[in-house]
Structure formats: structure tokens, C-alpha cells
Amino acid sequence: MRRWLILLGGLLIWATHFLGLYLITSVADVVATADDPVWRLAGAGFSLVCIAGAAGLGVAIARAGRRGPQPDPRRFEHSVALGGCVIGGIGVAFQTLALLIVG
Fold first, then answer.
1. What gap in Å lies between CA 59 and CA 86, rounded to an integer?
2. pLDDT, tens digit, for every residue of 13-53?
3. Peptide bond preceding 71: is omega within 30 degrees of 0, i.e. cis?
4. What percentage of the chain reaches a pLDDT higher than 90?
5. Angle CA 102–84–56, to nearest 5
């Protein structure tokens, strides 16, 4: 189970970010307006936390890949997990740009 969480960690962060931004903008639309600066800053802060999480996970995976024996039999898993972190980070950044540009 732990290997699957590491393998899909970056994509799970991206999915959590998508759900979190959706919830933040939904609450903002009910409480005030969706383009209120306070709620945009809340979304931007949440996005920064998610990007930091994806970057931290990527660094941890990269370090774990270098510590293993050469050749590491799980090198492919580390490569896929690192790619998932990169894709997740790009997805988070793309969704954050949409949050900051609209309005």
C-alpha cells in the first residue's frame, strides 16, 4: 500500500488541490462573491501548500532513488513517481493561474 501511495502521491496531491479549490470557490460564492480578494488569497495559499507538498514529495523520491543499490530494481517506480509529482505540480500551477487570472 505504501508503494502505491508513493507512486501516485503527486497525482493525489493534484486531485486534492482540485477538490480543495472547488470547495473554496463554492464557499466563497455562497458567503460573498467568488472573485473576492480574500477568497482568492485563500485559494492561492492552498495552492502554495499543494505545490510545496508535490515538490517535497518529489525531492524525497529523488533522494530515495539515489540511496538504493546500483542498479536499483525499483528505479522504474521512482521514475514514475517522480513523473507523477511533476505532472501534479504542473496541474496545480495551471489551476492556480485560472484562479488568479479570472476576474
1. 11
2. 999 999 999 999 888 888 887 678 888 899 999 999 999 99
3. yes
4. 51
5. 85
